[in-house]
Design a protein that fits this description.
The chain contains eight helices and no strands. The chain is mainly alpha-helical and about 170 residues long. Helix 3 packs antiparallel against helix 4 and helix 4 packs across helix 6. The longest helix has 22 residues. The N and C termini lie far apart (about 60 Å).
């Protein structure tokens, strides 16, 4: 199928269903609601998100999506799993998945570094909100890894506490 014909077919299907295919905000909301309501889905989703950065090809992303969610009945995921088996659509699916995961991560990740997190933390404080901070990827299997994460947390506290601590909390 030619790209123009595929675009027209997808656009027509979206309009006919009344559902905007590229409305990532709606997709995020639906996925977060589902993850909140279903512990098994939440576990599969978090495991998929955890492995996603290691997947080097579009086919690998599509294959993992199908593997993790093969029994999923929710419309959005079911459609994605259906597309996963179509090699010609795997690049589109993989891009949509990576874009969606990156956008959703932005809801929970204040910054890639403590320095980059400062503006987001100040904004939260300014709105009177509390928060917790975690370092992503903290998996310790050996004592030297535990020491490395301890040092990273000490650095994080040392950097953020004096700066964020000056902000006024309305308690």
């Amino acid at each position: 199928m030619e790209p123009g014909a595929l675009h027209d077919k997808l656009t027509h299907a979206g309009r006919a269903s009344g559902w905007r295919l590229l409305d990532f905000t709606r997709w995020q909301r639906a996925l977060l609601d589902r993850a909140t309501d279903d512990e098994g889905f939440r576990t599969r989703m978090l495991r998929f998100v955890d492995v996603l950065p290691t997947l080097q090809t579009d086919a690998a992303v599509a294959g993992h999506l199908a593997e993790y969610f093969e029994d999923e009945s929710a419309g959005l995921i079911r459609r994605g799993v259906g597309l996963a088996g179509q090699p010609v659509l795997q690049p589109l699916l993989a891009r949509a998945v990576r874009t969606g995961v990156h956008a959703m991560a932005g809801l929970f990740i204040a910054g890639e570094t403590p320095e980059r997190a400062l503006p987001q933390l100040r904004a939260l404080i300014g709105r009177g909100m509390a928060f917790t901070l975690d370092l992503l990827g903290e998996a310790t299997l050996a004592e030297d890894e535990a020491r490395a994460y301890l040092a990273a947390y000490q650095d994080l506290i040392g950097l953020l506490a004096p700066r964020v601590g000056r902000e006024r909390w309305d308690a």
